Amino acid sequence: MTKQAIKGAKNTTNRQHNEVEPLLGKVRPEKVKKAARDLVKRFPEKFTTDFQSNKKMLKSMAYIYSSKLTNLIAGYITRLVVIAKAAEAGESAEGTEEEAEAAEETD
Question: Are residues 80 and 34 in contact, defined by beta-carbon separation less than 8 angstroms?
């Protein structure tokens, strides 16, 4: 078989496999979470709920070797800021109640 035929066979297999499994949320790597939490803890006033401004701020603060990693960290920072502002305002942000329940279950 040629490489093209093998590649085509892989795509068919993957396509069938993806149809069977349910769609789940993406998991962020621990290094993304750790970097984002550390930056928000050290510089809470510099980040906002706007992804683009957080991305620019992140680029000016640290050298990150890939744009994908920069986007992941900026996105998680945005999420952390949204949750923090919702907690301050007493509102429930998307997922905040679930995180609070999970924290209560572990206590």
Answer: no
